[in-house]
Amino acid sequence: MTEREFFIGRWAAELPMTLGVVQALPDEKLDYKPHEKNRTAREIVGHLLGHVEDINELMLATGSINHRMEIPFTNIADAVEQMKKSGAKVESQIPGVDENTWAKKNNQFLVDGHSHFEMPVGMTAWILLFDMIHHRGQLSAYIRPMGGKHPDLYGPSGDSAAQ
């Protein structure tokens, strides 16, 4: 198994867990944040949507990604639909990226038009996936204080029927 193939498998496993966390957030409390320095749940969900679109742009291997800090959505159902659609596009695009492009083709990661870093497609994809997992973790800590039930992730949660 190549590293790119391993990424495909991890993407297929991690995206549904991220969707489960997003789906657990109550629509009426998306402005919740546990501290003034934290982002709101809405901002984090929009940021996650941006990462999925960033990976889609990355798979085109154009040489740069214009990082999306946040993509707007109207409610959780809309965010989930956007993430499913964009996530499916990622799954369909990655197999078309050859191993040489994945491992060696450098892409610039642009934030507000300024180069933040430059590295191979594969490394950038991993950074974006790991950052999605990080932000999913932030959101998972928001669920119960927002009044939601925590979904199972890598095992049963305290709210799971399996407990």
Chart the SSEs and their pairings.
Elements: H1 3-23, H2 41-59, E1 64-66, H3 76-93, H4 99-104, E2 106-111, E3 114-120, H5 121-143
Parallel strand pairs: 1-2
Antiparallel strand pairs: 2-3
Helix pairs in contact: 1-3, 1-5, 2-3, 2-5
Question: If you had to describe this structure to a student in words, what would you say it looks like?
Answer:
By secondary structure, the chain is mainly alpha-helical. It is 53% helix and 10% strand. It is built from five helices and three strands, in the order ααβααββα. The protein has helices at 3-23, 41-59, 76-93, 99-104, 121-143; strands at residues 64-66, 106-111, 114-120. A three-stranded mixed beta sheet has the order 1-2-3. Helix 1 (3-23) packs antiparallel against helix 3, helix 1 (3-23) runs parallel beside helix 5 (121-143) and helix 2 (41-59) packs parallel to helix 3. The longest helix is centred in the last third of the chain and has 23 residues, at 121-143. The radius of gyration is 16 Å and the shape is globular. The termini are far apart.
